[in-house]
Amino acid sequence: MRIDKDLVAASATPLVLGILADGDLYGYAILKRVGELSGGRMQWTDGMLYPLLHRLERLGHVSSSWGTSEAGRRRKHYAITATGRATLAERRAQWDVVADALRQVWESAPRPATVVEVWA
Fold it and tell me: Which residue numbers delimit the Transcription regulator PadR N-terminal domain (predicted)?
């Protein structure tokens, strides 16, 4: 299933902040975690993640520092800041309202008929 880019864009900030709320990570580990959390259905790219991380850093929501991996490679680690935690709480409250409204619409609306393909 392909997830619409508007939905990915809207969910990217709270998803990254939520992941970082569990602990500091480097970029590749964040990409991997998104894949794990979505059961492999969301596959972000470097080109999508790093501009987001840089924007979140400019806004003061995350900080970064250089570290060295067990293999000796230098990696930039990202951590959520106090401002980022406040933003995450605000975004979560917003998503709760949206998710509740969608749930109500979907529970009250009749389900569309499933199209069944018949082979002759």
Answer: 16-90
pLDDT at residue 17, as a whole number: 98
Which two structure tokens, joined as six digits, stand for 4? Answer: 């619409």
Smallest CA-to-CA distance from 24 within 70, 67, 73, 54 is with: 67
Residue with structure tokens 């059961």? 39
Share of the chain above pLDDT 70, in %: 92
Asked if residues 56 and 62 have their Cβ atoms less than 8 Å apart, the reply is yes
User: What is the rounded CA–CA span in Å between residue 120 and residue 5?
Assistant: 37
Write out pLDDT tens, residues 100-116.
999 999 999 777 666 66
Give φ, ψ of 35 to 5 degrees. -60, -40
Q: CA 42 to CA 8: how far, in whole Å?
A: 9
Q: For the chain, first and last CA: distance in Å?
A: 28
51-82 as b/e, with b when 16 or more CB fall inside 10 Å?
ebbeebeeeebbbbeeeeeeeeeebebbebbe
